[in-house]
């Protein structure tokens, strides 16, 4: 084992002010650039912390993933000198499979959506005595993800508090981690705008149903948001009177438009999962929520979690444009 107890795997990412988004919304917009993490997304925060705590004596790790949790697990395992197996569904792009292999992971492709891959990963953990690394549903992941809010608070400096936090929801791990972080810095009263795409909307569906529900299928191109069931804790938070969580949906077309806008304006390419959050800015959702009285007017600074993602390159972008042309 070639790492020390205190080693951490994630970086302290930049907090950038977006001039163009600020102009569009009439409030300062700050981008927490999690796309610049070594694994390409915020996932490395939680997964790094999880593996430090639970995988030190392990024979190896196995992670079920839409892609980005796997990228984080593969990166962390390589640094810890452990073998990593990542189980992904067929909906995961070839691009990500190759990137996982480049990180040194053994990749298995099982089932149509993440839930199927997860069942296989759990089976492998059992039969091959590997440490199972969950992509979103574990308190250690949330504890790890919380650091991004603590960092953002330090970057903003004392006296600056966001008017709202904007993020994407897949299985709800990022949401739980951000709430953890908001508690840590005393920002529990800051509203959270929780974005999903239509067809990968398990959190929104749970809120509508008043209980955790399982989607029949994932039909969105934002496959990294494609867990059929949101984690119980995320749903519980949505019911809490101490928190304001606004759950909203965008179409795949809006998410795609957002990643193209973000590329043009900020010169950064992110995947559809992240586009879901960015679309809240570019599609006019924020002023709509203000008009409905669900967000205050004027709104304090908006903190956008740019969650990143590895499932994108120019070819993938072109093929998404083809597919989603309506
Ligand atoms: N992706 C998970 C779950 O997929 C994964 O295995 O990688 N933004 C990006 C770029 C992501 O990759 C994910 C999750 C999210 C946002 C949402 O995070 P969550 O799942 O913690 O809500 C099925």
UniProtKB/TrEMBL annotation:
Enzyme class: lyase
InterPro entries, A to Z: Ser/Thr_Dehydratase, Ser/Thr_deHydtase_PyrdxlP-BS, TrpB-like_PALP, TrpB-like_PALP_sf
CDD domains linked: L-Ser-dehyd
Pfam families xrefs: PALP (PF00291)
UniProt KW keywords: Lyase, Pyridoxal phosphate
Transmembrane annotation, as ranges: none
PROSITE patterns documented for this protein: DEHYDRATASE_SER_THR
Source superkingdom: Eukaryota
Catalysed reaction equations from the record: L-serine = pyruvate + NH4(+)
EC number: 4.3.1.17
Names of the cofactor(s): pyridoxal 5'-phosphate
Name the UniProt record assigns to this protein: L-serine ammonia-lyase
């Amino acid at each position: 084992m070639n790492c020390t107890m205190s080693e951490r795997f994630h970086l302290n990412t930049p907090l950038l002010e977006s001039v163009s988004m600020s102009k569009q919304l009439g409030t300062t917009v700050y981008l927490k650039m999690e796309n610049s993490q070594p694994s390409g997304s915020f996932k490395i925060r939680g997964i790094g912390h999880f593996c430090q705590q639970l995988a030190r004596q392990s024979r190896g790790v196995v992670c079920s993933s839409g892609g980005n949790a796997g990228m984080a697990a593969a990166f962390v395992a390589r640094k810890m000198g452990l073998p990593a197996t990542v189980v992904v569904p067929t909906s995961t792009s070839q691009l990500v499979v190759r990137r996982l292999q480049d990180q040194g992971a053994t990749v298995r492709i099982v089932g149509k959506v993440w839930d199927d891959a997860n069942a296989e990963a759990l089976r492998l953990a059992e039969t091959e005595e590997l440490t199972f690394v969950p992509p979103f549903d574990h308190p250690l992941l949330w504890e790890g993800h919380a650091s991004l809010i603590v960092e953002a608070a330090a970057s903003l400096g004392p006296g600056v508090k966001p008017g709202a936090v904007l993020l994407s929801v897949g299985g709800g791990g990022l949401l739980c981690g951000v709430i953890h972080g908001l508690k840590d810095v005393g920002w529990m009263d800051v509203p959270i705008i929780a974005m999903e795409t239509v067809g990968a909307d398990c959190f929104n569906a749970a809120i509508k149903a008043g209980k955790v529900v399982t989607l029949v299928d994932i039909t969105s191109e934002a496959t990294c948001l494609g867990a059929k069931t949101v984690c119980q804790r995320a749903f519980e938070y949505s019911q809490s009177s101490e928190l304001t969580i606004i759950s909203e949906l965008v179409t795949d077309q809006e998410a795609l438009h957002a990643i193209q806008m973000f590329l043009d304006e900020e010169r950064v390419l992110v995947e559809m999962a992240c586009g879901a959050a960015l679309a809240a800015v570019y599609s006019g959702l924020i002023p709509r929520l203000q008009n409905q009285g669900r967000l205050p007017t004027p709104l304090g600074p908006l903190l956008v979690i740019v969650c990143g993602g590895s499932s994108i390159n120019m070819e993938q972008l072109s093929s998404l444009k083809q597919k989603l042309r309506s």
